[in-house]
Amino acid sequence: MLSAYINEKDIRTGTVISVVARSVAPGEILALEYPNKSRVSGKVISASHNELEMEINSEAWRLRPHAPSDSTIHNDLSDKDASFWTVQAKL
Fold first, then answer.
1. pLDDT band at 7; cut points 50, 70, 90
2. Is residue 35 within 8 Å of residue 26, measured between CB atoms?
3. What is the DSSP track for the chain?
4. What is the pLDDT of residues 42-88, one digit of tens each?
5. Cβ atoms of residues 63 and 49 within 8 Å
6. Beta strand 83-90 with 59-65: parallel, antiparallel or unpaired?
7. Nearest-5° angle of CA 33, CA 88, CA 53?
8. CA 69 to CA 29: how far, in whole Å?
9. Nearest to 19 by CA among 58, 59, 77, 70
């Protein structure tokens, strides 16, 4: 099971999720940890370098690469140990 970290107390548009993995594939399960250390599991629905869809708590979410204020995209799953995603929409 892969690990991921949610930067807020709930998941909504704008929430940043960091995924600790070189890559993810459809069907993989992630252990998502909130700041208060509580955990939920999420299942990858689809994944590419510019979009990630996950089911978390029986709800589907679309995530895009996180671009902080310096406009750098911190997302290259091919050669990094972690990637950062921003929740874009509930599906």
1. confident
2. no
3. -EEEEESSSS--TT-EEEEESS---TT-EEEEE-TTS-EEEEEEEEE-SS-EEEEETTEEEEEEE---TT------TTT-S-EEEEEEEE-
4. 999 999 988 999 999 899 999 998 876 554 444 444 445 778 899 99
5. no
6. antiparallel
7. 65
8. 30
9. 77
76 and 83 in contact (C-beta within 8 Å)?
A: yes
In this predicted structure, what is the pLDDT of residue 77?
44
Residue 82 CB burial class (10 angstroms; 0-12, 13-18, ≥19): middle
